[in-house]
Amino acid sequence: MARDYPAIKPISLETDIGYAQPTQVVLERVHIDSPAVDVMTDFTRVTAVIILPGDTVDEAHRRMIQRGVRSLLVVDQDRKLHGIVTANDVLGEKPVKTAVQRGVLRSELQVRDIMTPRAALEVLDMRDVSTATIGHIVATLKAAGRQHTLVVDQDAKGRQRVRGVFSATQIARQLGIAITTDAVARTFADIEASLGP
Q1: For residue 68, what is the DSSP state?
Q2: Given 3.40.50.970, 3.10.580.10, 2.130.10.10, 3.40.190.290, which CATH number is that of 36-195?
């Protein structure tokens, strides 16, 4: 039996209209013994911010500012992971040294020139993360001397995929401690000292 479905009346778009984007609810305050997942950016809830290996370093910097992040997943046209590029990679000495070594202008450098490639990344397994506390993640980042670490799980076909990322800056923000991010070891020493015994 056919039903009569009246058309919905269209409306006009307003000027300066944006669009909806997924948001992850970030717990404002956590403590060192809170579950690690409370400070993980979960890509099943938040769209990963990505960049292509052939994009410029300046474009990577612009995208970080625009999206309010300090790291980007470097992926190819098929969305396969090639590596990660961080704010430290973009703003530190690496671009200048690389440009000098190659005899090119800094503005000509591509993300592939300064990123940490997939083969050099150490990642965490979601099975371990799901039972860990923030303290475990702090210790892991400190031991690695890194600002970020990726988390992987398996997709429906059992293939490894990037599930999320931990950021030292995000963890510090949620712990409620103002820290500098230029040295991970000092950053986490500051966190531990301010939390007390």
Answers
A1: T
A2: 3.10.580.10
